[in-house]
Amino acid sequence: MLRLNHVQKAYGTPEQPIPVLHDISIDVADGEFCAILGPSGSGKSTLLNIIGVLDHPDAGEIELGGVPIDFGSATEAARLRNQLLGFVFQSFQLLPRLTAWENVALPLLYRGTPRPERKPRALAMLDRLGLGERVHHLPAELSGGQRQRVALARALIGDPKLVLADEPTGSLDSVTAAEVLQLLRQLNRDFGVTLLMVTHDRGLAEACDRSIEILDGRVVSDVRRDG
Amino acid sequence: MMPRRPAHNLEVAETLREALANLRAQGRRSALALLGILIGTASIVAMLNIGHIAQLETSKLFSHLGADMVQLRAMPTGAAPAALDRELIEQLPARDPDVAWSLPLATGRAQVAFGSQRHDMLIVAITPALPRLAGLHLERGRSIAAIDQCAMVAVAGAEAATQLSSPGNQLMPTGKVAIGDYVYSVIGTLRPSFAEALSPGDYNKALLIPLDCARRVLGSSAPTTAMVRLRPGADAEKAGARLSGMLANASSSIEVISARQLIKTMNEQKAVHTSMLAAIGGISLLVGGIGVMNVMLMSVMERRSEIGLRAAIGATPRDLQLMFTVEAGVLALAGGVAGTLIGVLIAWIMAQYSGWTFDLAFYVLPLGSGMAAIVGLVFGLYPAITAARLHPIEALRAD
């Protein structure tokens, strides 16, 4: 499903590069619920950005669904993100002046889906995530957990091959965080969504099928659990 | 394989709807940017429409007499009153190939009394052909005719008739008016007429009498002015010089006023005004454009995380550029439409104030709005490119 081959990335100037990722190779199978665990500064966010085609690696290759990713064109990258990926952010990143369903439908807008098709699909997706009663609410009128559900619905609406979640519970209290994790779990099991979650929370990582620990830009452990 | 999509896949209607929603969300700031464009467009539209009205007014000044009119006026050279040779004036068409027709006339002022009314009035002594050639129309009665010759008959202009009338004593044909020391019979009254540039005076305020025997009230029966209509294509300047040479005599020098000369002077003045107003309008529009750019740049900076999010979920750089360009265009177009309406309103107010007839120059409607939209698109381009070039990660981080 996802294959990283000797991926390297450094920031800083060409004269004084600051390496962030050293030679990372990972394979994520279809339907896996995988955590990338690491403290801040470990390079896990950079890794997620590269997998999310938001940033390009200095060396190495990435294959998504068997197709090598071309990082050369910003337009092509946007298409890949739109077609293959779903994003969930720590700060939700909902557009405040759009209602829940309009936020959810946004990826379809950039796919060129006509408006009459977008609305029913967004409503159905929100319904699946248990927000059927809140579709016309603005983000400000929703609780943190509800907002993250809207964000999840937005990530899933385009039927992505892979959903990338960056500290998805980082802005939530522990009860709500557990709920969202439960939901992710459920989506992974019931709908077969492949999930890649970045977190610094070991407890959260241990709830996943697999956790890959990163430290100083290197994979230090890769643990699989039986789900 | 992934299906190919066009580089930007948003329908125009979608983009417009988004742009309107975004602008509404920005409220007051959008309104301020709009104001600059509005003022610029309003001044340009007002200027163009006033120019259009002024042109109509100018052409009205020559509507009956035409642009080929030349007025030759006798100016006294010494103590003797200025006078022209009437026969010579009447022979001008035969003597000069450029002259279509030529009318002698004399003007002066005299005390006019009717009933209890007594006024100092303009007297125009004419030959029978003048009313028709000058486009004067009768309200009542008849005009001065060849048979009147030396008769004591008068035709009253519309305002003059009103001025001389008193309640219960209307000035009408067959009424008697005293002009100076003589009693004239009123044979007709005129409809109101438009005072043209080359009229010897405002016929509305005048009494017309036969030039023959005008000596009774004007002191002389000799004409003081020749109204000459040149043939189309004649050189007004050369013909004027030639005719004034023919008409000049010991007691009078000739002043030549040609319609073409007047029109040229008016057009020159208008050109100065127009270019000045165009410059002011252009500068306001430029300032408005910079306002749009400013607002759009601020909007791009404030909405960085939105731009990052949109990029993350699949907006291409062109989608983002289009989004901000359309926002700027819509903003400017709204300002342009409002400015056009206000500009037309200003032109209307100016026309009322100047006593001109308002006429809408239809071409200003698309022109004003279109110019504003173009300004918006041009000045919106840089902010839009800035938005398209933002790196999604940095944009997402900008919370």
> How many structural domains can be distinguished in the coordinates of chain B?
2
Extended strand count of chain B: 10
Main beta sheet of chain A: 6 strands, mixed
Shape of chain B: elongated
In angstroms, what separates the terminal alpha carbons of chain B? 36 Å
Strand content of chain A: 25-35%
The overall average pLDDT of chain B, rounded, is 86
Largest inter-chain interface? A-B, 30 and 30 residues
CATH superfamily of chain A: P-loop containing nucleotide triphosphate hydrolases
In brief:
The complex is a heterodimer of chains A (227) and B (399). With 227 residues, chain A is an alpha/beta fold. Chain A is built from seven helices and ten strands.
Structure description:
Chain B: One of its GO terms (molecular function) is transmembrane transporter activity. Chain B: The chain crosses the membrane at residues 32-54, 276-301, 322-348, 360-382. Chain B: Residues 280-392 form the ABC3 transporter permease C-terminal domain. Chain B: InterPro entries: ABC3_permease_C (IPR003838), MacB_PCD (IPR025857), Macrolide_Exporter_MacB (IPR050250). Chain B: It holds the Pfam family MacB_PCD. Chain A: Residues 2-227 form the ABC transporter domain. The complex is a heterodimer of chains A (227) and B (399). Chain A is of the alpha/beta class and 227 residues long. Chain A has one domain (2-95, 158-222): Rossmann fold. In chain A, 35% of the residues lie in helices and 28% in strands. In chain A, strand 1 (2-12) and strand 2 (17-28) form a beta hairpin. In chain A, helix 3 (100-109) packs across helix 4 (115-128) and helix 3 runs parallel beside helix 5 (144-156). Chain A is globular and about 50 Å long. The two termini of chain A are 19 Å apart. The model of chain A has no long low-confidence stretch (mean pLDDT 90). By secondary structure, chain B is α+β, with helices and mostly antiparallel strands. Chain B contains twelve helices and ten strands. Chain B is elongated, with a radius of gyration of 33 Å. Chain B has a six-stranded mixed beta barrel. Chain B has two domains: 10-61 and 265-397, no CATH class; 84-248, no CATH class. In chain B, strand 2 (99-114) and strand 3 (117-126) form a beta hairpin. The longest helix of chain B has 44 residues, at 259-302. Classes of the chains: A alpha/beta (227), B alpha+beta (399). At the A-B interface, helix 2 and helix 3 of A face helix 1, helix 9, helix 10 and helix 12 of B.
